[in-house]
Amino acid sequence: MPFGILNNISALQAEGALQSTQNSLSTTLQQLSTGMRINSGSDDPAGLAIANGLSANIAALNQSVQNANDGVGNLQVADGALSQVTGLLNTAVTIATEASTGTVSSSQRTSLDAEYQQILAEITQIGTTTDYNGTAVFNGATTSIYLTDGTNASPIATTIAALTTTGLGLNGTSLAGTDGTAAQAALTAIDAAVQTVANDRGTIGASVNRLQDASSVMTTEVQNLTAAENNIMAADIPSAITSLSNLSVLSQTGMAALSQANSQQQSILKLLQ
Q1: What is the pLDDT of residues 156-175, one digit of tens each?
Q2: What is the mean pLDDT of residues 11-20?
Q3: SS3 letters for the chain?
Q4: Distance, CA of 197 to CA of 203 (rounded, Å)
Q5: Distance CA 80, CA 95 (A)
Q6: Is the pLDDT of residue 1 over 60?
Q7: How far is Cα 87 from Cα 64, in angstroms, rounded to an integer?
Q8: How many Å apart are CA 4 and CA 267, to the nearest integer?
C-alpha cells in the first residue's frame, strides 16, 4: 500500500466501523430505555406491521368486551324490573284469591280492587320509566350488541319484550262485583301474566349468559394477542445488556483505532525534516 497523504484509508475504515458501532449502540440504548425491541419502522418493518395489526385487534376486542358488558347491564336492569313485577303480581294473586271467595262483601271487593288497580298502575309505570343509559328498556325493540376483533364482526341480538298491562293480558281486569266471578277471571289472567313474565326473564337470562360467554372468549383472545404482540415488540433485556457491554468496548476500541489511524499521517512530516 502506498504511503501518502492524499487519502487516509485506515482512518476511513476505522470511522466506518465506529459509525456502525455507534448506530448499534444507540439502538441498544433505546431498546433498554423503552423496553421495546421495535422503536421505529426501520428496526423491523414486517414485525412492526404485524404488531400494529395485533394492537388494532386488541383495541377492538377490548371495546367489544365493554359492549358486551353494557349489553349485560341493560338486560340485568330489565331482569331486576321484572323481578319487581313478579312481586307485584304475587300480591295481585293474593288479593284476587281473597276477592274470589264468597265470604267477601261487595264493598270489600271494591277495596281490594282499588289496591289491585294500583298494582296495575305500578306495572305500567315500571314498563314506561325503566331505562338504561337514557334509553327505555321495555321498548320491545331488538338491540344489536356489536362484537368484533377489528376484522370479523359477530353481533348478538337481544330483545326485551314491551312491558304493559295489555301485553300481560291484565288491561280491563277487575276484582269488583257482587260475587267473585270477575275476581276469578282476573286471577286466571294474573296467573298467565306471571308465566309470561317468567318466560321473559328466562329469555333475558339466556341472553345474559351468551353475552358473558362471549365476553370471556374475547378476554382470553385479548390475553393471547397481547402475548403475541409482546413477543414481537418487547426487547430481550438480558440480550440487550450483553450487546451494550460488547458495543461499549467496540466503541472505545474504535475511537482508539481512529485516533491511531489519524496519527499515522503525522509521521510523514518527519520525512520533511
Answers
A1: 999 999 999 999 999 999 99
A2: 68
A3: CCCCCCCCHHHHHHHHHHHHHHHHHHHHHHHHHHCECCCCCCCCHHHHHHHHHHHHHHHHHHHHHHHHHHHHHHHHHHHHHHHHHHHHHHHHHHHHHHHHCCCCCHHHHHHHHHHHHHHHHHHHHHHHHCEECCEECCCCCEEEECCECCCCECCEEEECCCCCCCCCCCCCCCCCCCCCHHHHHHHHHHHHHHHHHHHHHHHHHHHHHHHHHHHHHHHHHHHHHHHHHHHHHECCHHHHHHHHHHHHHHHHHHHHHHHHHHHHHHHHHHHHC
A4: 10
A5: 23
A6: no
A7: 35
A8: 10
Question: What is the grid cell recorded at 36?
Answer: 421495546
All three cell numbers of 111, joined, read 277495596
pLDDT over threshold 70, residue 9: no
Report the Cα–Cα distance between both ends of the chain, in Å, rounded: 23
Other Cβ atoms within 10 Å of 240 Cβ, number: 18
pLDDT at 241: 76
pTM above 0.90, yes or no: no
Q: What is the mean pLDDT of residues 143-150?
A: 93
Q: Which CATH class is domain 71-233?
A: mainly alpha
Residue listed under C-alpha cell 304493559: 164
